[in-house]
Specification:
Elements (H helix, E strand, L loop, with lengths): L4 H17 L14 H23 L20 H20 L5 H4 L2 H21 L5 H20 L8 H18 L5 H15 L9 H15 L4 H7 L3 H19 L11 H21 L7 H21 L1 H7 L11 H18 L8 H21 L6 H8 L6 H14 L8 H12 L5
Length: 443
């Protein structure tokens, strides 16, 4: 069984620890420098594309209602709304096929992009139906979780698919992690919440005490609704059901252990923090990979477990200010000087480069696309936490980024205004537009 704790802690974790510890702390020489002319062209494309999107959203026709299972009395979309939706589709495809920054068109065929789009829309429809009051930020977390799974399917040559099991698992993160991280919930509430999850996974009866607990139980039911099926049995054998339950229980344990990072009464060493980060990040992504129901080699397991740790450190890199304010101790928030933080980021680059030596076979274009976008994720995360690094270090990183860091900062600041049609950012309006895009065209 893949999710035996002895295997996770005795085999995968030590190897990822060694890969991290042996990674150099020197500035990564393998980053590709992007000259000023190319940056300027990229910035011009982004500026023009953002304006096209802004004008299109500004033209969004008012609506009475869109059809979703959670809403009563919904009406069909109007002819004007149908035209707007067709223009949205055309704009989306145009931008994807011309964007110069991520290189999507070089790694994915138009057919693959269509499949990604269809399944993402299906996923978001399920989100809107299941949790109509979920905020955009939490929806963003859920869709990022799903995208990791979708990328793994493409990496392993499998068609795109959005089952109830991966929907349930992708939604667990905003439901569980955010609840446990919220200081407004008491320790007793968190203990009860974790016990409810543990019992539900184990097949024991539970009594939800709130709508949030009830929804969490339903997500766990969604995972079990079609898992394991014939594909899982073929890939992992008759123990697939027990294995995924064990994996989910380990993930719950990892979330509980991670709470130690904010407990000021506990003394944590750098190794303690590293272990927590590897365990939590590694398990979350290894479960994603497990859900695609494709046999795994030892090397595959190492790559996906290590990939989860990579994403965890990128999250920590983005959240340095927030973690320092809340007292959460991560490999980056614990650092006292810019030089210490720069060493961690340099190590992260080298670790990522080495980790991809273990990546499963896929097209060279897709492998390079994934690796380069991991580098870009690290670069943008560091830029977002720029106050914690020296100007000379940021200048070195900026050379490898598709746009200048000053442009990136300005673009982030302008983004909410760009998408609110000249008015203060209005989540209800954004939700209306999202519902329009997700609505089925009438026959």
């Amino acid at each position: 069984m893949l999710f035996q704790k002895e295997y996770i802690t005795g085999s995968l974790m030590p190897r990822i620890q060694e890969l991290w510890q042996s990674a150099e702390c020197t500035f990564p020489p393998f980053l590709t420098e992007i000259n000023a002319g190319e940056k300027g062209m990229n910035e011009k494309w982004i500026t023009e594309s953002t304006e096209r999107i802004r004008l299109h959203l500004k033209a969004f026709p008012s609506r009475s209602a869109f059809t979703f299972p959670n809403k009563k009395g919904s009406e069909r979309i109007t002819p004007r709304q149908q035209i707007w939706l067709k223009e949205t589709e055309s704009l989306f495809h145009s931008l994807l096929l011309t964007e110069p920054v991520l290189g999507i068109r070089n790694a994915l065929s138009p057919q693959t992009l269509d499949a990604f789009q269809d399944k993402i829309k299906y996923f978001l429809r399920e989100v809107r139906s299941f949790a109509p009051d979920m905020e955009l930020e939490d929806m963003g977390q859920a869709i990022r979780n799903y995208m990791v799974y979708a990328i793994f399917r493409e990496q392993n040559g499998l068609p795109q698919k959005c089952s109830s099991s991966i929907f349930g698992y992708s939604m667990l993160y905003p439901f569980t992690d955010n609840f446990l991280d919220d200081p407004s919930h008491t320790e007793e509430e968190k203990i009860h919440y974790n016990k409810l999850i543990h019992h539900r996974i184990s097949g024991l009866p539970v009594t939800p005490l709130s709508l949030h607990e009830e929804k969490t139980a339903l997500l766990l039911d969604a995972i079990a609704a079609d898992y394991p099926g014939p594909e899982a049995d073929e890939a992992y054998g008759a123990e697939a059901a027990a294995d995924i339950r064990q994996g989910l229980l380990l993930m719950l344990e990892a979330q509980e252990i991670s709470q130690k990072q904010t407990d000021a009464s506990l003394s944590l060493t750098e190794k303690n923090i590293l272990d927590i980060s590897i365990y939590k990040g590694g398990l979350s992504v290894l479960i994603d990979r497990y859900f695609i129901n494709c046999k795994m080699t030892e090397q595959d397991a190492l790559f996906y477990f290590g990939f989860g740790f990579l994403l965890q450190i990128c999250d920590d890199l983005q959240d340095i200010a927030q973690d320092r304010e809340s007292g959460s101790r991560t490999l980056l928030s614990r650092c006292q000087t810019p030089e210490e933080r720069e060493d961690v980021v340099n190590r992260l680059f080298h670790y990522t480069d080495r980790l991809f030596h273990f990546s499963p076979p896929s097209s060279a274009a897709f492998r390079n696309f994934l690796l380069q976008n991991c580098f870009q994720l690290i670069l943008s995360s560091a830029a977002g936490s720029g106050d914690f690094f020296s100007s000379s270090y940021l200048e070195g990183l900026e050379r490898a980024f598709p746009v200048s860091f000053s442009y990136l900062k300005q673009a982030k600041e302008k983004m909410p205004a760009a998408f609110s049609a000249g008015k203060p950012a209005d989540q209800n309006r954004m939700m209306d537009m999202l519902d329009a895009v997700l609505s089925e065209s009438p026959s």
